[in-house]
Amino acid sequence: MEDNDTELSQKEAKKKGVRIALGMAAGLAIALLGGWYFYAADHGARSGKAQVRIEKNATGGDIASLLEKQGVIRSAVRFRLYVRLLGEGNQLQSGDYVLEKGLTIRDAIDALKHGKTEAYLVTVPEGSTVHQIAQLLAQAGIEGAADFEAEAATYGPLKYQYGPVAVPIKAEGFLFADTYSIPKEYTARQILDLMYRHTDDMLTPDIRKRAEAKHMTLHDLFTIASMVEREARFPEDQVPIASVMLKRLSIGMPLQIDATIQYALGEQKAELTIADTRIDSPYNTYTHPGLPPGPIGSPGLPAIEAVLAAEPGDYLYYVAQADGHHVFTRSYEEHQQETENIYGSSS
Fold first, then answer.
1. d(CA 297, CA 319)
2. What DSSP state is assigned to residue 52?
3. What is the mean pLDDT of the chain?
4. What is the pLDDT of residues 127-164, one digit of tens each?
5. CA 85, CA 191: separation in Å to the nearest integer?
6. Beta bridge mates, 98
7. How far apart are CA 173 and CA 156, in angstroms?
8. Model pTM greater than 0.90?
9. Using alpha carbons only, what angle is made at residue 183 by residues 179 and 55, rounded to the nearest 5 degrees?
10. Can you give the three-state secondary structure of 217-237, one letter per residue?
């Protein structure tokens, strides 16, 4: 009997130990869940709104750090732990958001899972001016469109936007031509920041190195590319046109680019007059040698690549044919002959 009693006592002790262990585990789980709930309900310390762009390849850690930096949440560490606990990291969506600062972690996660702000796709064609971009934004219904031109004239955070001569519109030419997803409520400053970031991302280390190898500043690269963009109707003409420009610059010959006159006039004329080519403007490349003060529109990547690929060649002139392709010549006499062949001797 004593052996049986001892055995029963040992079994009861084991059961009691198991119950204690389970109780402790349950208590720990409750404490942990309570802690996670506190973390999830923990508000950030700031107020206002933040513009947040979640890249497609962003990790949970990247998102957490960005949200903390922008003041959306208080703690990136808590955000990461909470996302990992719930296994929701792969549900966070990339895109452009306008989020309230001071959100709880739970609300921030929900916003990135389901609450993407209403955004519109705005396509900026290659060669667009700031004025034309403002019109596109207004047509799309973006709220910041009304102040866009005024903000673009004075706001320029990129160091390479600045050349030796001041320009009337700092953003001109540095808003990369592409399709943007822009939240409806974005301000002019937020729109510009979005486009400036895209421009800076487009300028890869390779592009920057190639420009440096040509002893060309990024400001000059954009300026030349913007003229190539406006002058060439077909991709195959971009490198030869860029070569003519570089050749003229190398020998100190005026560029005489019609597109810069159109920009100075503020309108697109079907045909320029002699008087137009004599207007008093630093953008008049007929009367002012060298480059204009800055870009005359937003170049696309192919125009930028064309400038980087081009070298000063033998050609000094080009004239557009009826179909928009250009004929390139070495001398003024050849140029005059080709012009007469295309437009007739009366032109």
1. 21
2. E
3. 86
4. 999 999 999 999 999 999 999 999 999 999 999 999 99
5. 36
6. 51
7. 11
8. no
9. 65
10. CHHHHHHHHHHHHHHCCCHHH
